[in-house]
Amino acid sequence: MLAEDMEVPLLNNLNDNGDRLRSKGKDVFKEQQKESESSMESPNLEFEYGDTDTLVAELSELYSYTEEPEFALNRDYFEEDFRSHARGRRWIDLSAEERRTYVMRLLDALEVTDRDKRLKVARAILYLAQGVFDECDTEVDVLRWSRRNLFLLYDMGIFTALLELLSMEMDNSQACSSAVRKPAISLADSTELRVLLSIMYLMVETIRVQTEDDRPEWRAAREAFKNELGAPLYNGEPFALLLFSMVTKFCSMNAPHFPMKKVLLLLWKTVLFTLGGFEELQEMKVRGRQRLNLPPLPEDSIKVVRAMRAASPPASAMELIEQQQQQKRGRRSRRPLVKQDSLDTYNERDPFKNDDARDEEEDPEDGDSGMEGEVDPLDRDVIIQPPPPLLRPPAERVNFPKGLPWAPKVREKDIEHFLETSRNKFIGFTLGNDIETLVGLPRPIHESVKTLKQHKYMSIAEVQMKREEELQQCPLSLGEEEVEETPAETLYLGLLPNLSQYVIALLKLLLAAAPTSKAKTDSINILADVLPEEMPITVLQSMKLGIDVNRHKEIIVKAISALLLLLLKHLKLNHVYQFEIVSQHLVFANCIPLILKFFNQNIMSYISAKNSICALDFPHCAVHEMPELTAESLETGDNNQFCWRNLFSCINLLRILNKLTKWKHSRTMMLVVFKSAPILKRALKVKQAMMQLYVLKLLKIQTKYLGRQWRKSNMKTMSAIYQKVRHRLNDDWAYGNDIDARPWDFQAEECALRENIERFNGRRYDKNRNGDFAPVDNCLQSVLGQRVDLPDDFHYSYEMWLEREVFAQPIEWEGLLADQ
């Protein structure tokens, strides 16, 4: 009743003053439209997606703010030892040979048995890796000396020594048992591990990054280090496997003191270094297509995405009023105003408000009302009144280039399906997989097939699947497959025995670090390497720790999302069934609902979060004087428009979700069942083209299942999908006529995929299996002449064995003759 009571005076007021309000409103909004049309582009988030953030940002995220006092401790231990060696001289004043001599001395000191002395030496090495900041005046000098020192440390063999110490600390049962018994774990429980992992991370991240002024010996060292990390040199396993085992040990509660943030960052950067980033991946893909004699890629996807612009903001209020008047003239209705959906739910008072009630209206299972239901009276009032310019930016139009950004693609399966349908319709029978014979089909069908073949795209994955099918059918004639020993192959071979444990452990950490997760007593504690020994007692200390904890969780999400995406992309290029087994483990471990749960928040607030204190970031805090921190300065944070790591994490998670659901009907239906459409639509508020692209892809694959009313209510989203997402010819994504989506086949689809994966792994990696095609010796003399190794005591029990195994066994000769 309240809504109806408020509705009538509002309509009367609009009718009584209609001419005056309409003329005034039109003048105002026409001016706004002219301004918006004259502007070039709508304001986007100035975000450039890449493998990592800047080197300074990546190095600063290694350290928690509670670790800041340890910088001075590292310096003190270094100067205490260095003073006795150099006597009044500084590190930057030494010659190259003197530096090598001193590093060799530190390397020898790492061999001592005294744990405390080893820790002091490790801290001195960490100070060198951090760039001897006490002898530098600017942050640039710190980074330059850090780079020089790290290449020197690698050249002197420090990394191998640190690896041995890391293995010792991992196997330190005393530290593990004491950590398990402690009620609260803090920074002090992981001191040795944090120092070792920090040095190793600095080495991997700094040596990984190429610069123009690198010396030739540094370039050679980089390649050597890359090969060393990717090769199975550490106990027959690559270095990444050691870090994966640390993750599983932590998640199984056997080592709750492990500093997980540092482990995950080092694991991500190790995989990135050894396997390569996104641009290297694109180059590998081009080379792989050339090797398989496939046509080149229609475009460079990285360049296309970078050239995209974000979608336009919601429609202006003037357009809403005009639509209102048209509807009233067409039919008298009690529904006074249609609140348009423009990428998509948009609250006039707060553009980024998380309105759960509105999302429930949008859900297709709750009536498919979309955004065409009645508008809240307060919203209605705001829409009709001209909005103040501070609360809402003027509507702007994006000038899309002529043509679509992506070349359309067609799979061979699509052409076969099209010809099968056409032959059934015009001839009455089919020819199987024949896509060449067009006899009896009318001329328009010939033209259609010609167009489809022009855009036919054969992926590397399809070639690999066909080749695997041939190897399974003809194992003898085709012989053994030659497997190239790539870093991805080596890593997969190491991951395979415990792959499910690694996947579950990573998803457990992702769940614990997600901002939407509730604190539970049985969840794992990921704050072991951020909480100080003494908890804060003042409001300022509590605020600082709260920012540190939120930042800590954001960095963990960033590392896990980037790591999973890298693994999926590299394994898919190496062999599609390696990608499929990791994908299936992720799906079975509830990765899809986990990512949707992550996005079921005020995503704009998450992306614009300011959980950082610039004055405490390394190397700024090591070079400059520490300013006095106040509650106001902590609340203000930095002046950035968005948080790079959070936007990076969101895009990575969306890309993972796309990889898991692409061409998989059962997993697409999971998106529908978990009601992902309103969650994903909220993510479209983020004005960043790449993020919008992957959200639109996820909406496109489930559009046909959301119902006609949803599509009718979300035409702006449908238009954006058409403009930004690649077209698959013959794909009726917008109509819902999918004959392949039979719900009873969903489980069978996953089972068939699992069977293909197991056959692939058995053929390629199980060398001890008793194959059906193993050669058999049929010659009686050679079989009897083979020497059989018998145990030494066999001749003592030979007669008993003969009696039991030969004479006591009845032989039914009649039955044997009858069978023959």
TrEMBL record:
Residues 313-327 have a biased composition (Low complexity). It holds the Pfam family DUF3402. Residues 313-396 are annotated as: Disordered. Residues 357-376 have a biased composition (Acidic residues). Residues 442-798 form the Far11/STRP C-terminal domain. Residues 346-356 have a biased composition (Basic and acidic residues). GO terms for cellular component: cytosol. Residues 42-344 form the Far11/STRP N-terminal domain. This is Striatin interacting protein 2. It comes from Hippocampus comes. The lineage of its organism: Eukaryota, Metazoa, Chordata, Craniata, Vertebrata.
